[in-house]
Write a structure and sequence with these properties.
Layout lengths: L7 H4 L3 E5 L4 E5 L17 H14 L6 E12 L3 H6 L6 E7 L6 E10 L2 E14 L23 H5 L1 E4 L5 E5 L14 H16 L8 E10 L10 E9 L4 E8 L5 E11 L3
Antiparallel strand pairs: 1-2, 2-4, 3-6, 3-9, 4-5, 5-6, 7-8, 8-10, 9-12, 10-11, 11-12
């Protein structure tokens, strides 16, 4: 299943290949996408893929009167993830998700990500089960084909973000774009998680021209709804950076000035 380019999933050319109670599978192409703050290849959009497929595995477990919202997302990357993806000649990353543990107030799924059959990451998504919202935006129908010409060419334009000044922080402003909103009219959680990885990765690599630290782990907590526009932004600062590792904290601040998401990223030197 492919999605229209005026939806978050279509904007990233995500394709759902399998959807079932025992397993869900989807793919995302990353060829040519770079971090707008560093200009380097990035694994950030894999957060978009994980949020989708891991969330879908949880969503399929809901009761008829329930809906699901992501509350936590974690990704652990292999030391070669960036190198493997960058050298895969445009081959998409595949993610397979399955339920993990019993359903309760929350559900949890576990995901495995590969590129050309090479493992690149493992991930988990935890979702809250809530009463189904009374008003949901009409979901655009799936389409048979998504023309690449309809998709913005750069990662910054796909995310609708601008690089901004932030003193000692790395900052991306989140502009308004209806194509990035989910069914209840707020910025899609995968969009926000991707942007948080970008600012946090840029923070740990500030001042490095070569031998960039590569993202090893990303943990995102969703605190409240994130609205774009106004002063909404993603910003990250470092906790510690040394020769062989770096740790940064990032947050998404909504148009209302409230912190909507928090993230922590750990990075190490990449391996070939």
């Amino acid at each position: 299943m492919r999605y229209p380019p005026n939806t978050p999933l279509g904007r990233f050319q995500i394709e759902t290949l399998e959807e079932g109670l025992d397993r869900c599978v989807a793919s995302i192409p990353l060829a040519g996408l770079v971090n707008p703050l560093t200009g380097a290849p990035t694994v950030g959009p894999l957060a978009m893929l994980v949020d989708h497929i891991g969330g879908l595995a949880n969503h399929l477990r809901r009761n008829p009167d329930e809906w699901t919202v992501t509350s936590e997302l974690t990704i652990e990357f292999t030391g070669t993830a960036t190198t493997v993806i960058a050298g895969a000649a445009g081959e998409p990353v595949m993610a397979s998700a399955r339920p993990f543990g019993p359903k309760g107030t929350t559900s949890m799924s576990i995901c495995e990500l590969t590129c050309g059959r090479v493992p690149v990451a493992t991930a988990t998504v935890r979702s809250f089960h809530i009463r189904a919202p009374e008003h949901l935006a009409k979901w655009p129908p799936a389409c048979g084909d998504t023309d690449a010409a309809d998709v913005p060419p750069t990662l910054a334009t796909r995310l609708a973000v601008d690089v901004a000044e932030g003193g000692g922080a790395k900052v991306l402003r989140q502009l308004q774009d209806p194509a990035l909103n989910n069914l209840i009219g707020i910025v899609h959680g995968g969009i926000s998680a991707t942007a948080l990885e970008l600012v946090a990765s840029a923070a740990v690599n500030d001042g490095r021209a070569q031998h960039l630290l590569q993202t090893a782990s990303l943990r995102v907590n969703y605190l409240r709804q994130f609205l774009a526009g106004g002063e909404s932004r993603y910003e990250a600062t470092t906790l510690r950076v040394g020769r062989s590792s770096g740790v940064a904290d990032a947050k998404a601040v909504g148009a209302d000035g409230e912190v909507a998401l928090l993230a922590r990223l750990t990075a190490y030197p990449g391996t070939a």
